[in-house]
Design a protein that fits this description.
This protein is mainly alpha-helical and 182 residues long. The longest helix is centred in the N-terminal third of the chain and has 29 residues.
Length: 182
């Protein structure tokens, strides 16, 4: 087995693992599969954590995860797929960041790992064992990488920034108790 064969096999395994996990998470949000809550339940949860409107936020996150994950696993439109999945994971990491890094404490470790893996695959490319390669890289051109990341970064910044502003504004109206009641 040559070094190129090993690289292509390694990229396939990364794509299948990260893409499969992302697609499953998206399916939970969109369809309620794998113990998920579907659009309605996920939409209510999204509202509760500051992503408003909740149903639209659940749909966008579900599509980015399920669509991006599926495309990553297939190795198709890899720049757009990886950027979309990385953007969704940045939104998830923002929710978990107050809990620190490690997943066991509710931190952003898992979201960051999936997001960085998706971003790395978008930049590196899918390898030869992919639909992009089979189709002559028609939707995997070099210029698509910065374009996909620029669009995703702009959208993610707007959405996560709006959430942060909403949370700050909601917290401004709260007042902590001056004295403990017994």
């Amino acid at each position: 087995m040559t070094r190129n064969d090993r690289r292509d096999l390694g990229l396939l395994l990364l794509r299948l693992g990260a893409g499969g996990a992302l697609a499953a998470h998206g399916a939970q949000k969109l369809f309620g599969w794998f113990g998920g809550h579907g659009i309605e339940g996920t939409g209510q949860f999204m509202e509760s954590i500051g992503y408003v409107p909740g149903k639209a936020s659940a749909t966008a996150a579900g599509l980015a995860e399920a669509g991006g994950g599926t495309l990553l696993a297939l190795g198709l439109a890899t720049p757009a797929a990886g950027a979309a999945a990385a953007g969704a994971m940045a939104g998830a990491a923002a929710v978990h960041a107050p809990n620190g890094f490690f997943n066991q404490g509710g931190g952003y470790e898992y979201a960051a790992t999936l997001g960085l893996t998706a971003a790395g695959l978008a930049i590196t490319g899918p390898g030869r064992i992919s639909l992009d390669h089979l189709l002559g890289h028609a939707v995997n051109r070099g210029w698509m990488i910065p374009a996909a990341f620029a669009a995703t970064a702009a959208g993610t910044a707007v959405v996560v920034g709006a959430r942060a502003r909403r949370l700050r504004k909601a917290k401004e109206g709260e007042q902590e108790a001056l004295f403990e009641e017994e």
